[in-house]
Amino acid sequence: xxxxxxxxxxxxxxAAGPTDVRxxxxxxxxxxxxxxxxxxxxxxxxxxxxxxxxPAVVELVCDGERIAITATETQTGRQSHAEVLARGTTGxxxxxxxxxxxxxxxxxxxxPIAQRRSHERENAQQPEPMRRFRASAAASLRRVARxxxxxxxxxxxxxxxxxxxxxxAIEGRxxxxxxxxxxxxxxxxxxxxSVAVLAGAGRGAWRIEAGPGMEVGLVKLSAHDxxxxxxxxxxxxxxxxxxxxxxxSRAFGGRALLLGQIEGGWVMKPVTGDVSDGRPLVExxxxxxxxTIGAGMAF
Length: 299
Description:
This protein has 2 domains: about 1-120, no CATH class; about 135-299, Porin. About 15% of the residues lie in helices and about 55% in strands. Strand 12 and strand 13 (about 280-299) form a beta hairpin. The chain is rod-shaped. Residues about 1-20 have low confidence and may be disordered. Helix 1 (about 35-45) packs across helix 2. By secondary structure, the protein is an alpha+beta fold.
């Protein structure tokens, strides 16, 4: 098999034609490479009339009875292939047919430059489709109270986008935990609901959002009986306070997504569990921080 790998020296006579095509050739039996240059120049002027095609390299490979033609677009590396019978390329008529095959392969396999650039601009200007509703489920971990207590639980959330960069985020959460003090152990049962306004932006599949919000909830504190025989009791009370939220999410397949968020807040309506003599045993007050990791769907 003979590979036609010798680039024609100098600037071809047709280099100023409708496209910059470099013909890579080595003499094949019965093929006049110089005449093939001239014929390809003429055919490109006809086939590519009125269009400007991207630069390309055309390689001819002779393999017995066949000639393989490969056109490679130099800007993208995209290739197109054609094959002709070697016996059909002999003589003036056969050489003209080979030139036509080369020219048509170049002209039909490449999009015109102006058309491609227009298409690229259109794609660049078209933003990702806006998903107005997003639902999620997540596991949560929160550090609260005095003395400090870890609360573990889950959260269900729903986001409603009212503009491309803004969304109303609503979340419901249930958590449990326990605090061991000098006197006894106190169990926590916490239910809360929050609403936040998030501003965000995305790039590709990633999106980051942040904003302020407010959370209200109900906490139940249950003290265990003590070793000294003191009877434990329960207390249920509402709590509330502002929060700040930072969320990062990644979309998969356009709709599914994974998300993680860090948030912190301040309890403005505190809850205190007292000992019978009036001393505070545990308190839900002051600052708190939390972490949420979950998954969701966008609609």
